[in-house]
Amino acid sequence: MTRTIDSKLPDVGTTIFTVMSHLANEVGAINLSQGFPSFDPPEELTDRISFYLKSGANQYAPMPGVPALREAIVAKTARIQGRTLNVDTELTICTGATEGLFSAITALVRRDDEVIVFDPAYDSYEPAITLAGGITRHVPLLIDDNGHDFRPDWDRLRGTLNDRTRLVILNFPHNPTGAILSQDDLDTLAEITRDTQCYLLSDEVYEHIVFDGEPHRSLLGHDELWHRSMVICSFGKTFHATGWKLGYCAAPADLTEEFRKVHQFTVFTVSTPTQHGVADYLGSHPEFYEQLPRFYQEKRDRFCSLLEGSRFRFKPAQSTFFQLLDYSDISDERDADLAVRWTREIGVASIPLTVFCETPFTGTRLRFCFAKDDATLEAAAEKLRDL
Ligand code: PMP
Ligand code: GLN
After folding, report:
1. From the CA of 235, how far away is ligand 2's center (Å)?
2. Is residue 100 lining ligand 1, measured as CB closer than 6 Å?
3. Domain boundaries 16-41+290-385, CATH class
4. Which ligand is nearest to the CA of 117?
């Protein structure tokens, strides 16, 4: 018997990351699509997790997270962003950023509330908004005259905000464009939201991967913005461990209380030995995340220099481990079609940008992940240079 389910998410298929990685594996292509490093976390960190696995830290952790991990995050945040979070009331460990985002959206968004996202928008936001009964409003990022840099369109945000706006979702450092925020951006956002009732959800999973000497400007570090913000981070990016699904949500106490009401019934707690291991390592090895910008900047520069002489147009990414390549001098195909064709025919998989947009304004650009060993980057660039 066949049946038709009245889906709560009729327009949602399988994520582009799963689709492209699956295709890359199927045809044996170099996979620069889904964002994950081809290298391991530091050995001392995996040793600490093994230690806890083997010494009995295998039962439920406290619902907000292992205290030692929360303390290590408080210390890091105080040092880098100048804000000392209350370890008991302003921080919750969650199952990767994905759970943090989902719990935050579920906790805040009510039926018919409007939520503003900036396109291209990471793909997990809108389904969570829809499930919560909310309505997603898309504001495209602006593309600079140079054709490469993306930045928030504050005038459009101002024009889209209204009494029904419950939440604005931000993601800087931005996946997939690498855009970052300036101090002026933060001040403008504060000014725009000052007399409104809306909250801010800031996805900062690439907090430690910002290049060319720029700092990461967190909403956490801005006194006025902090009071209306939930900030979500992930150790998956920071420690080359996307498979651990370990992240956190920092928010003022009243927002954290709402966040935990949902978190406790989605996952309740997060893997105990992983939390203990990361707590030890995070506290004792700040040099690991401090060297991350240099580490990834070298990868970015290597990938970009390998592509010199190719027919792609690009400007080195300002942050994240993704490089955008504009293929308009090579093809006029739709990005989604081209990403599939090149995976099959050229043997390099990438991510199209228009799938993250309500209108296809990002046009002829593909995203390539450079969190890979040199041999992989060289092999991919060789194929891309031939196009
Ligand atoms: N937000 C953004 C912008 C991401 O790029 C990712 C994953 N790469 C996530 C959220 C999800 O993070 P996690 O794997 O920790 O759930
Ligand atoms: N965030 C990762 C990316 O941008 C993918 C995460 C996923 O596969 N859901 O590539």
Report:
1. 14
2. no
3. alpha beta
4. 1
Tens digit of each residue's pLDDT (9 = 90 or more) over 266-279:
999 999 999 999 99
Q: Please tell me the distance between residue 277's alpha carbon and the centre of ligand 1 in angstroms.
A: 21
Q: What is the pTM of this model?
A: 0.98
Confidence of residue 2 (pLDDT cuts 50, 70, 90): confident
Domain 44-285, CATH class in plain words: alpha beta
SS (H, E, C) the chain: CCCCCCCCCCCCCCCHHHHHHHHHHHHCCEECCCCCCCCCCCHHHHHHHHHHHHCCCCCCCCCCCCHHHHHHHHHHHHHHHCCCCCCCCCEEEECHHHHHHHHHHHHHCCCCCEEEEEECCCCCHHHHHHHCCCEEEEEECEECCCCCCEECCHHHHHHHCCCCEEEEEECCCCCCCCCCCCHHHHHHHHHHHCCCCCEEEEECCCCCCECCCCCCCCHHHCHHHHCCEEEEEEHHHHCCCHHHCCEEEECCHHHHHHHHHHHHHHCCCCCHHHHHHHHHHHHHCHHHHHCHHHHHHHHHHHHHHHCCCCCCECCCCCECCEEEEECCCCCCCCHHHHHHHHHHHCCEECEECHHHCCCCCCCCEEEEECCCCHHHHHHHHHHHHCC
CA–centroid distance, 140 to ligand 1, in Å, is 20
Ligand nearest to the CA of 16: 2
Fold match between domain 16-41+290-385 and domain 44-285: no
Domain ranges of the chain: 16-41+290-385, 44-285
Question: Which ligand 1 atom lies nearest to the CA of residue 320?
Answer: 5
